[in-house]
Structures are given as structure tokens and as C-alpha cells.
Amino acid sequence: MEMDNNLLTAMVERWRKETHTFHLLEGEMTITLKDVAMLTELPIDGDAIIESSQKPLNGWGQFISERLGMNIPEEAEEGRRVPPLHKSMLLIPWLVRTVGELPEDATDAQIERYARIYLICLVGGFLFPNKSGGNMHCMWLRVLLGDWDEIGRKSWGSACLAMIYSELCKCTDPKTKQAGGPMFILQLWVWEHLPTFAPICPANSWGPDEPLRQWAYGARWIGAITSGTSLDGYRQHLDRLEFNEVTF
Question: How confident is the model over 140-176, as pLDDT tens digits?
Fold first, then answer.
């Protein structure tokens, strides 16, 4: 779906880090763990994702080489100033380009490596993106290159909500110009609970056999195009938001 930066900016301006809530005309609201679970179906039970950001004894390059069988170059690619692995940050596009396409006669080892790289892209590039242009902190690799069952037992939904709260709090600083994290979840939440700001929902035109009906509830917004409302337009509407415009 298309991201509505004006809408997100207007909501950030209403965020109060003291209470972790949006202050609106009719009261306070916030995104909850239940919202994340409903919209994404990410697990909210299980172990907390708590990993050390310290480098392994032999460095991240050796760590990646041993688990993915990929040697990371020490020189920067053309058009970039730093190599794919720099200061504990891994360049995800380099990882994707290097692995290429999965051959039809792939071995089990190749399939497993592709699956792990898919998870790295999903986590580092979609669920927990930062503001560094496609880089992911290598601390995530301790989870994603570990035991498969352990990965599935993690509370990924809780981690998403924690990062949303963290990024919203950082954005209360006027000097902050961008936000990282899964802001798409926040946008889905606004569209669901403040439907007056939502575009036309693509799910309204789905047929009974639409495969997306089997996905998470938030999938009904796949393909949605934002309204094009300006930042001032959202601000003014939030200033006069009425109780009957809020869905609980």
C-alpha cells in the first residue's frame, strides 16, 4: 500500500511520550498489542526478542560467512561510500543481489539459506527498517540465523509495538525528520480507528474467492492509494475531530 507521510506526521504531532498516547479532541487513543495482532497476525505470545548488539568474537563478517556461506567484500560497491558490512550494519540489497535466484534443483542447504535471507529481508527491510537506506543492524542475525524453532517462538508482534512506541517518542523531538520501524502498522491502525482519514478500501471490491481473505486483517488494505490530503488538511481535521468519527 502507499504510505501517507502527511497523515503519519499529523499523528506524530499528537503523540505524547509521557503517556504513550495520541491526544485528540475527544480524548486519548493509542495502538495496542491487540491491534498489532489483529492487523498483522504476528505472534504476541512467546519469548521477548532481546539480543546483544556486541560483535561476536571473530566479527560479524565471520559470523555471516559461517552461517550463510557468503564472503562479504571489504571494498565498497560502485556508487557507495562504504562496504556492504560497515560498523555492524549489513546492506540488505547487497545480500539479495548476491544470493540471486533459487535454482530449480536446489539442495536443502540452498533452500534453507534462501529462507533465512528472506527472513532477513522481511525483518530488516519491512518490520524493523531504520533510516539508513537499506541497512540492518547485525544484532538481528543472532535470532534469524539461529534455531528455526526459536525464531518461531519469539514475540514478533510485541517487538513491533515496542519499536513503534520508541520511534514515535523520538519523533517528538522537533529535530527528528524521519521515523523508522513498522510505521505501516500505525497507518493501518489510523485507517481502521479513524476511518474518515482512510482511502477507499480495496477489499470492498473483492470477490468471495479472493485469496487475500485468508490473510491477516490488515491485508484488506493492500493496494490502497492515499487521499492526497495535505499536512495542514489533516491537522485541521484533527482539531475538529468528533466522537462519531472514531471507531473503537
Answer: 999 999 899 999 999 999 999 999 999 999 999 988 8
Query: How far, in Å, are 23, 177, 236, 247 from residue 13 at the CA level?
Result: 9, 12, 12, 21
C-alpha cell at 101: 535466484
* pLDDT at residue 108, as a whole number: 92
Express each pLDDT in 116-127 by its tens digit. 999 999 999 889
Which pLDDT score is estimated for 177?
Answer: 87
Burial (CB count within 10 angstroms: exposed 0-12, middle 13-18, buried 19+), residue 197? buried
Reference 197, options 14, 42, 38; nearest CA is: 14
C-alpha to C-alpha distance for 67 and 147, rounded to whole angstroms:
11
> With 70 as the cut, is the pLDDT of residue 22 above it?
yes
Express the helix, strand and coil content of the chain in percent, nearest 5 each. 50, 10, 45
Q: Which residue has the cell 487475500?
A: 212
Tell me the three state secondary structure of residue 28: strand
Cell of 50: 532481546
Q: What is the mean pLDDT of residues 71-88?
A: 86
Coil, helix or strand for 245? helix
The 10s digit of each residue's pLDDT in 100-114 is: 888 899 999 889 999
Distance of alpha carbon 83 from alpha carbon 108, whole angstroms: 30
Residue 74 φ then ψ, to 5°: -90, -10
Report how far residue 103's alpha carbon sits from residue 87's, in angstroms, rounded to the nearest whole number.
33
H-only helix segments in 123-217? 141-144, 148-152, 156-171, 183-193
